[in-house]
Amino acid sequence: xxxxxxxxxxxxxxxxxxxxxxxxxxxxxxxxxxxxxxxxxxxxxxxxxxxxxxxxxxxxxxxxxxxxxxxxxxxxxxxxxxxxxxxxxxxxx
Amino acid sequence: xxxxxxxxxxxxxxxxxxxxxxxxxxxxxxxxxxxxxxxxxxxxxxxxxxxxxxxxxxxxxxxxxxxxxxxxxxxxxxxxxxxxxxxxxxxxxxxxxxxxxxxxxxxxxxxxxxxxxxxxxxxxxxxxxxxxxxxxxxxxxxxxxxxxxxxxxxxxxxxxxxxxxxxxxxxxxxxxxxxxxxxxxxxxxxxxxxxxxxxxxxxxxxxxxxxxxxxxxxxxxxxxxxxxxxxxxxxxxxxxxxxxxxxxxxxxxxxxxxxxxxxxxxxxxxxxxxxxxxxxxxxxxxxxxxxxxxxxxxxxxxxxxxxxxxxxxxxxxxxxxxxxxxxxxxxxxxxxxxxxxxxxxxxxxxxxxxxxxxxxxxxxxxxxxxxxxxxxxxxxxxxxxxxxxxxxxxxxxxxxxxxxxx
Lengths: 93, 406
Ligand SMILES: Cc1cc2nc3c(=O)[nH]c(=O)nc-3n(C[C@H](O)[C@H](O)[C@H](O)COP(=O)(O)OP(=O)(O)OC[C@H]3O[C@@H](n4cnc5c(N)ncnc54)[C@H](O)[C@@H]3O)c2cc1C
Ligand SMILES: [Zn+2]
Hints:
The complex is a heterodimer of chains A (93) and B (406).
Chain A: E1 3-6, E2 10-13, E3 18-22, H1 36-44, E4 52-58, E5 66-72, E6 78-82
Antiparallel strand pairs in A: 1-2, 3-4, 4-5, 5-6
Chain B: E1 22-28, H1 32-45, E2 50-53, E3 69-70, H2 77-97, E4 108-112, H3 115-130, E5 136-138, H4 140-146, E6 162-166, E7 170-171, H5 174-187, E8 191-193, E9 198-204, E10 207-213, E11 216-225, H6 231-238, E12 245-256, E13 264-267, E14 272-276, E15 281-288, H7 300-313, E16 322-332, E17 339-342, E18 348-352, H8 362-375, H9 389-392
Parallel strand pairs in B: 1-2, 1-11, 2-8, 4-13, 11-18
Antiparallel strand pairs in B: 3-7, 4-6, 5-6, 9-10, 10-11, 12-15, 12-16, 13-14, 14-15, 17-18
The structure holds flavin-adenine dinucleotide and zinc ion.
Flavin-adenine dinucleotide is lined by residues 28-34, 53-56, 59-63, 65-69, 197-198, 226-228, 230, 234, 249-251, 285, 328, 330, 354, 356-360, 406 of chain B.
């Protein structure tokens, strides 16, 4: 089981949280100008790295707030957790 | 019913050749899908200068880790067509490959525990019948006739309100399936190369012309990816993205028991599925871990929940012991349907996204993927499963519809 640190509540078992997939996927700036292929990218395509991955979790049975976690998908090591308004630790990607 | 002895293996299964410098076709991944593709490339299309490259050992990935459930009771026409083609091939394969891999058509029950489950199940039975797939709706007393050890009392937390039943569905010995396909592919001239990881792709402009491997560079006209959970990693190496996410999925077995469990039982609502292996182990699985992961293990709370569900459905299992748990990595698409076809890289084809349920599709995946690689065109059965459906919006949304994962 993963031990994940909520930025507001501290470390808790994985079972207190729900997973929200890749973090830092911004809504398109000019939606009306997007091609079908660009919409497909935004809606359906997410990174799937074997290694560090910035992802969203929600503390569903705690404070119910969303936050981001940097986690290694190969080792499952939680490298960092941070508030949604904070940048990805160590720069983007 | 008595436990069936496992068949003896033939002495000689396949050669272990050194990789050659070039092939007509390179398949990445010697799981069931890669092996079936190589077999049908040779058998159906006469293409035998083929290498199947495997980073680990032959069929040591999801092929060796799945719970071997085979069925074709999918909701949508496109899915029913490809999975039913697979089931028909399964019915002939032991004879065709001359290898008894214990394909056992003991049926699959998909239980309903809520009014919505009931409606969904009845709808799927009707859809299946329209597609020529055998399916029946069973009331609780009929469910109990098919599987007497199942608790159909109305006094459980989630009572069994009925179930769908596909009599032609079943299980097979997965390792033996792989070895059967490997032996025939090898006999037809295919090189099966283990311990050979693909680490990059050689391209001429937008066209693939070879692969970099841990055992050197191999030139080839066409490449077929059949790497299941690692398809996303390979696509990235080849310079494109796939709409897949890799998740750990685990399963477990008990110690051996007398034959007590005559069919396969799956429950979407309480999320467990159980069958009894030929030797006597109870084989159980549940859902994927929610997070992305490449570790071949899963979370303990998933096991706890599935065991709670299993014991409620099968009180007779209360004192069974878990002997072994393991995990695999499955690649899940946004519409829970596979991707089989061309990619943005010319002559590079992909077979992926089978998620938690690709074992049952093995022969059809190989059949259609071989067709696509040999002709450069989709087979009618895999045409709807093209990558461009995510752009056109022609999704085949089997989430929930397919009667639980697997
Ligand atoms: C626990 C579990 C239970 C399941 N239960 C069922 C079930 O009951 N019914 C069902 O239909 N399906 C089930 N599945 C799903 C099924 O196992 C998969 O969909 C199917 O096996 C995928 O195709 P494959 O057999 O070719 O994949 P795999 O056997 O995983 O083959 C892919 C191969 O590619 C190799 N590879 C990866 N990267 C590289 C590289 N760079 N170079 C060389 N080789 C590489 C891997 O080592 C692997 O051997 C289950 C899966 C799991 C994990
Ligand atoms: Zn919190």
